[in-house]
Specification:
The protein is of the alpha+beta class. The protein has 13 helices and 34 strands. The longest helix has 14 residues, at 138-151. The structure holds guanosine-5'-diphosphate.
Length: 594
């Protein structure tokens, strides 16, 4: 039999296609919200950083009730640095809702997650969103989705996906692609999910099998394992067995469980096959491990966890001005924070190499940058090194990680991309002209070669290029150093004056990045600066700045939209043995002019 009272789905969307608005609207229109006074926070990706970078980082659970059916909705991170996490989230669901903008159509960022979903055999429902906008092209967009499904190897059942046309903004939906047919509710979406996405198997009379797919942590209950009950039942008070990754067994009594309701977690006494739950009370519970009936030790196969390929050194700030800006500055603060992160992030490793120094390893530049950026915003002040790839011996040969890079770009930028990646020791694997003057390029690149490449790529393609990468494999080390130091970097030296600025880079287009808190070595600031206003700089001491093209000695340069540098931008200018200061106010590289 099936559990018709429940559906487990994951939601996949390209950033800005309306995932958050849609989930908010589902919450509002389901009975879930009757119990809650009002929706005071947006359902998903509330984290600013996620928004800025166009990805979702944290998997979040939401649950809604529609006509007596509980729908558990899981968010999927859209970036390949989080590949293992995507697989684990998909292992908990039976279907996915793919949200596609009715004008923009399918975008490369969704390919990665969609491919994983199709491989894992989940059933898709497609929502063509923003149907209220003028000049949408819903029929073409559906064709594009179909082509993509075929290309990604969808099976016969997956290809027969139902399509719902919706305006998440207006809270309307319909099975018809004519905007005039929109109905004033999200019922067409709810109905498609309930009709097409399989209900979980009801084998709750059989012995318990629960598997941890995600970890969470809080100070009161400690480590929390989130996952799905795949078989049987679990009740508070039950004696059950945890089967660890190394195969050892631990018996324990279930003391506390939570289910999901709206955006909240609610304590529950019992769960059965098909339910998603958060289980606390076992402090060393880990991703992939199973909780089973003590009389039937029958664990589920382990889940995939990505190994780290990149590391950075974190250490306390030793600059003469240390401690001015941060709330958390000591080695103990750093250690505690990193240990806390380890509780929930299974692809992270931390090794203390000196009393004030930690080597932190992760899945890629983005993975580590997000941790650093979060810490900065929480009030930490510390230093980080340029990232280094983790080399490994395979059959006696020194190997380094290679990434598979997929680029979609207007054809006019193809030449410079190929050249730039050439200097980074990339090998081209594929090139397809996809029409409309667009080309898709695929490269295999040593992960070393991608460090600091994102900024260069964005500026090279004027923001029109899209770059995705996934770990490919460890291959023998490529000889020599990789990458190109950018010319024209105008970098500051720190002084004790608090109100001055430093210029990091003057690009061809005249954009200058600035950060508050340091002194300009090469120029002088004329006029006031606020986050919104342009900043005028008089380059008076420019004799060393031979590479600066847009402003030379005795000229005035205008700094457009000054803002804090991102870590990735700083990394481009860092050398192997240099450290960058991370404070709540800025990310700051102390360096002489080139
Ligand atoms: P997410 O990044 O996928 O979570 O996208 P959001 O839900 O944040 O939506 C991105 C932008 O698109 C916001 O400005 C929304 O107001 C807007 N938006 C979302 N759904 C619709 C829609 O159905 N119609 C229109 N016109 N705009 C929408």
């Amino acid at each position: 039999t099936k559990r018709n009272d429940i559906r487990n789905i994951a939601i996949i969307a390209h950033v800005d296609h309306g995932k958050t608005t849609l989930v908010d609207e589902l919450l509002k229109q389901s009975s879930t919200l009757d119990e809650r006074a009002k929706l005071d926070e947006r359902a998903m990706d509330s984290n600013d950083i996620e928004r800025e970078r166009g990805i979702t980082i944290l998997a979040k659970n939401t649950a809604v009730d529609y006509k007596g059916t509980r729908i558990n909705i899981l968010d999927t991170p859209g970036h390949a640095d989080f590949g293992g996490e995507v697989e684990r989230i998909l292992s908990m669901v039976d279907g996915v809702v793919l949200v596609v903008d009715a004008y923009e159509g399918t975008m490369p960022q969704t390919r990665f997650v969609l491919k994983k979903a199709l491989e894992q055999g989940v059933i898709p429902v497609v929502v063509v969103n923003k149907i209220d906008k003028p000049s949408t092209r819903p029929a073409e967009v559906v064709d594009e989705v179909l082509d993509l499904f075929i290309e990604l190897g969808a099976d016969n059942e997956q290809i027969e996906f139902p399509v719902v046309y919706a305006s998440a903004l207006n809270g309307t939906s319909s099975k018809s692609d004519d905007p005039a047919d929109q109905e004033a509710s999200m019922d067409a979406i709810f109905d498609a999910v309930i009709e097409h996405i399989p209900a979980p198997e009801d084998n709750s009379d059989e012995p318990l099998q629960f598997q941890v797919s995600l970890l969470d942590y809080n100070d009161y209950v400690g480590r929390i394992g989130i996952g799905r009950v795949f078989r049987g039942k679990i009740k508070v008070g039950d004696s059950v067995t945890l089967v660890k990754i190394d195969g050892t067994h631990k018996n324990f009594r279930v003391t506390k469980m939570h289910g999901f309701f709206g955006l909240k977690r609610v304590e529950i006494q019992e769960a059965k096959a098909g339910d998603l739950i958060a289980l606390s009370g076992m402090d060393d519970i880990f991703v992939g491990e199973s909780v089973v009936d003590s009389q039937h030790i029958d664990p589920l196969p382990l889940l995939h966890i990505d190994e780290p390929t990149l590391q950075m050194t974190f250490r306390t700030n030793d600059s003469p001005f240390a401690g001015r800006e941060g709330k958390f500055v000591t080695a103990r603060n750093l250690e505690d924070r990193l240990m806390q992160e380890l509780q929930t992030d299974v692809s992270l490793r931390v090794e203390q190499t000196a009393p004030d120094t930690f080597v932190v390893s992760g899945r890629g530049e983005l993975h580590l940058s997000i941790l650093i950026e979060n810490m900065r915003r929480e009030g930490f002040e510390f230093q980080v090194s340029r990232p280094k790839v983790i080399v490994r011996e395979v059959d006696g040969v020194q190997c380094e990680p290679f990434e598979r890079v997929q680029i979609d770009t207007p054809e006019e930028y193809m030449g410079s991309i190929i050249e730039a990646l050439g200097t980074r020791k990339a090998e081209m694997a594929d090139m397809v002209h996809t029409g409309n003057g667009q080309v898709r390029l695929v490269f295999l690149v040593p992960a070393r070669g991608l460090i600091g490449f994102t900024t260069e790529f964005m500026s090279m393609t004027r923001g029109y290029g899209i770059l995705n990468h996934t770990f490919d494999e460890y291959r023998p080390m490529v000889d020599g150093s990789i990458g190109r130091r950018r010319n024209g970097a105008l970098v500051a030296q720190e002084s004790g004056q608090a109100t001055t600025y430093s210029i990091m880079n003057i690009e061809d287009r005249g954009t200058i990045f600035v950060m508050p808190g340091t002194d300009i070595y090469g120029g002088m600031i004329v006029g006031e600066h606020s986050r919104e206003n342009d900043l005028t700089v008089n380059i008076t001491k420019a004799k060393n700045l031979t590479n600066v093209r847009s402003a030379t000695k005795d000229q005035t340069a205008v700094i457009k939209q000054p803002r804090i540098l991102t870590l990735e931008e700083s990394i481009e200018f860092m050398d192997e043995d240099e450290y960058c200061e991370v404070t709540p106010e800025s990310i700051r590289l102390r360096k002489q002019i080139l």
